[in-house]
Amino acid sequence: MPRIVFDQVSKSYGAVEVLPPFDLSLDDGEFTVLVGPSGCGKSTTLRMLAGLETVTSGEIYFDDAPISKLDPKERDLAMVFQDYALYPHMNIAKNMSFALRLARVPKAEIETKVQRVAEMLNIAHLLDRKPAELSGGQRQRVAMGRALVRDAGTFLFDEPLSNLDAKLRGKMRAELAEMRDTIDKNMVYVTHDQVEAMTLGDRIVVMSDGLIQQQGSPEELFKSPVNTFVAGFIGAPTMNFVDGELVEEKGTLWARGDGFALPLPEEAGARLATAQDRHVTIGLRPSSFTTDLTRGAPIELKVVVSEYLGAQSVLVTRCGGAEILVETQSAAPVRAGTEQAFGVLTDEIMIFDKTSGLRL
Amino acid sequence: MQIANANRLTPYLFLAPAALVMTVALLYPIGYMIYASFLDWNPSQRIGEAEFVGLRNYINLLSDAAFLESFFVTLKFAAVVVSIEMVLGVGLALLLDRNIRGMSVLRTLFILPMMIAPIVVGLMWRYMYHPSVGIFNRTLKSLGFEPIPWLSDGSWAFASVVIADIWQWTPFIFILSLAALQSLPQSAMEAARIDGATGWRQIVYIKLPLMMPVLIVTLLLRLIDAFKVLEVILVLTNGGPGLSTEILSLRISRTASEFRELGEAAAMSNYLLILLVILTFAMFAYNKAVEARTARLRKAAQEGS
């Protein structure tokens, strides 16, 4: 289980640079999730780590040993593919044991290993079948099993759940989370789904346009995003962004916009007092609103639609010209079409630079 | 009621012209040939005047050394050329299945021979095999070797026609194999690389098994074609020297035109036809088996989910 370090690694296809040089280091035994919208370079990063794509410049180290010129098989890793990539002409047992057979592991040992992993994943009764005879979820398990049998130091997952239906995806996600805790390996997981990233990752690396936007624990990313991209990408429903300005009045800094004025906590006020540009983007999480008016700064919102999700409801509201999503408990129903007062938890307000999008 | 009937007839109505053409152009000649094979028929006679001899032509042929020899030559020719072409064609496809600059030009060059008319191929190779002015013997001579009797020695003549056929038909196997290779699931290849299969082992354990359905159909198509070969050999050797390159289709044509035995020629054609029908059915049966297997697997997958 090596410590993996990307040192000024970049990737270009001809003249097109898809990944400008970047640094990234993944600790031993960590579950790292690379997350971002499609085309952000997360899969390319994973494939360079796997050895399926060449590195244009820079170097990848496993515990100080450069590996970017090594063949995939020399890197001691196993990979689960988005479309499972099972060998259609081999039965499940053969699929799972392929790497071991190539490595000339004794037959009895292969059998024990395959049996053990198959039982762990509940696919022991499928070992004689061909991949085409299995359902999507079963194929997914086999792909997982094929990687586990290898007992490699590093596991790579390339959007492994995205071909499953929603229900099965939730189930497999929970199983993966359980596996993460029982297997002490490096795991690098690529996904575009922030829910998967939040639930699985010890560390999340958010990427966009070939750049690493931010990395950290799920909580760090949720509570202190560095810019509007990360703030908007992490968390569901997504954060509300409203144009506004900072105004100082009676010793308090206020974030004021079309139809609202929210006092900022003292600590934030001190930090923002020096901000050059007073015109800013104000970020409000849907969960930062409360119907308990004693708890937050008051704001009047016109409720347009109420989306009932069960225990929670998401209200689509208007405030001046802006649309604002509000998450509420369904127990206290709010009728659409009415003006409603809410409280805003002011210490959860985030202020971003309007042009650069950076958190102030 | 009447409208329903008319509707049911419509497809047959549309099929009728094609069926008519098929009957006139295909079924009639075949029926004519089958009928003729039961006659002792000389070309100077009208078909009605020929004597009906039952299966005599077929029985005679079974003890006719020349026919058996040419049947054997045909089998040998088909087996040799198709084996070599399969190895070369698949090998080339495996070699050229990569993205290197200029590869598309190279691929086009490789399939050119297939597009040349067989008669032209025959003529071309005959000039190249020419004992004194042909390029092969001139080159051998300039290098100080003895010239080779390409077309005048029995064993060499067989090798010569085999070489010409390989030159012309390897591309057919090459393009089909290449198409098969390029449609293989890319991620399975990548999984194999990560599992440690590179180069030869990837070819043996992943690529060839996955290409197998296409390769089997290609092999059968090529075999059917190889049994019917005529033009190139006709131009190159006309079956000689002796009977060394006299394949069945040549024998048939000589029996009809030189020996004036139309009935016997028809019987020979029927033997060849039977052989080809068996091969064709083998191909259909294989396709059916593959389809049935896929359907069974799909059904199992649906039940399993």
TrEMBL record, chain B:
Family: Belongs to the binding-protein-dependent transport system permease family.
PROSITE patterns recorded: ABC_TM1
Subcellular location: Cell membrane
Organism, scientific name: Roseobacter sinensis
Keyword Cell inner membrane: no
Protein name (Swiss-Prot/TrEMBL): Sugar ABC transporter permease
A Pfam entry, by short name: BPD_transp_1
Annotated transmembrane regions: 12-35, 77-96, 108-128, 156-181, 202-224, 268-286
PANTHER family reported in the protein's UniProt record: BLR7065 PROTEIN (PTHR43005), SPERMIDINE_PUTRESCINE TRANSPORT SYSTEM PERMEASE PROTEIN (PTHR43005:SF1)
This protein's record includes keyword Ribonucleoprotein: no
Membrane topology summary: Multi-pass membrane protein
Keyword terms, alphabetized: Cell membrane, Membrane, Transmembrane, Transmembrane helix, Transport
Domain ABC transmembrane type-1: 71-283
Annotated InterPro entries: MetI-like, MetI-like_sf
